[in-house]
Amino acid sequence: MRRVAVVVLEGAKPLDVGIPAQVFTTRTSMPYSVDVCGVRPGLIAGGDGLSYHVEHGLEALELADLIFVPGYRRPDSESPPEELARALRQAHSRGARIAAISTGAFALAAAGLLDGRRATTHWHYSRILADRFPRVQVDERVLFVDEGSVLTSAGAASGIDLCLHILRKEAGMAVANHAARRLVAAPYRSGGQAQYVPQSVPESHGERFTRTRDWALQHLGEPITIEQLAAHARVSSRTFSRRFRDETGYTPMQWIMRSRLDRARELLEETDLGVEEISATVGLGTATNLRRYFRRVLGTTPTEYRRTFSDG
């Protein structure tokens, strides 16, 4: 069991607190235990008219493998307690992963954990974060940023994407997909996806591209070209490529390749199919292609991945 701590600050946003607590909830299907804590035990005034009564103080961070700092109100005018910053630095130095949801990034930045790193936060606060902490490389467009030991995410819903991303890396695709079904959430949105679709993209194209992505997922085993995708979406190839990247953060073919990789990961976890057969099934051709792409994206081989994450 891996231990998760969720730190509730004054003005904590309810959804931001609830997301990691529910995603990593202690249940038989999840290899995690969750502690919700504050800077000290007791009643904490949250945002949106809610308060929290927590049993644990910052001592919960001493044994945690993964620590979440949810967003809180007025991060631009109120600094987090110094004892929290100190506890976060100590946890990070011993190897814990630290993750922020929305404006929780301000607490990580105040602790110095984002210095020299890429990070994101809710788009409304991104310029403030960049101005207040100039050593942080703020990316205001993306849903989340994974810097290894430190992770940050945008607005509340992107916290779900970040949590599922962590689950995929730590527990595998099957566990992450099970959690997504339980939450009735999209099982996969790339961290590089834009926080919101630019207003210059007509709404009808957004809907059309969603159907086109669904179609592509049903035909991963077949050759797929940009021309086919554009024809399905009923726009020109040039328009499709430009607007697809605006919506997803990926070029169409990058998105197709990542989708094929994700499907291969599921088959490695849940079936006994050989690497050659899996590669053909997901449209990557040969086992050599699958191995090369696994190494490039995941830093491992299909065989090692199966050994780590398969039920057997």
Automatic annotation (TrEMBL):
<dbReference type="InterPro" id="IPR002818">
    <property type="entry name" value="DJ-1/PfpI"/>
</dbReference>
<dbReference type="InterPro" id="IPR029062">
    <property type="entry name" value="Class_I_gatase-like"/>
</dbReference>
<keyword id="KW-0805">Transcription regulation</keyword>
<dbReference type="InterPro" id="IPR018060">
    <property type="entry name" value="HTH_AraC"/>
</dbReference>
<dbReference type="InterPro" id="IPR052158">
    <property type="entry name" value="INH-QAR"/>
</dbReference>
<dbReference type="Pfam" id="PF01965">
    <property type="entry name" value="DJ-1_PfpI"/>
</dbReference>
<dbReference type="Pfam" id="PF12833">
    <property type="entry name" value="HTH_18"/>
</dbReference>
<keyword id="KW-0804">Transcription</keyword>
<keyword id="KW-0238">DNA-binding</keyword>
<feature type="domain" description="HTH araC/xylS-type">
    <location>
        <begin position="210"/>
        <end position="308"/>
    </location>
</feature>
<protein>
    <submittedName>
        <fullName>Helix-turn-helix domain-containing protein</fullName>
    </submittedName>
</protein>
<dbReference type="InterPro" id="IPR009057">
    <property type="entry name" value="Homeodomain-like_sf"/>
</dbReference>
<dbReference type="InterPro" id="IPR018062">
    <property type="entry name" value="HTH_AraC-typ_CS"/>
</dbReference>
<dbReference type="GO" id="GO:0003700">
    <property type="term" value="F:DNA-binding transcription factor activity"/>
</dbReference>
<dbReference type="GO" id="GO:0043565">
    <property type="term" value="F:sequence-specific DNA binding"/>
</dbReference>
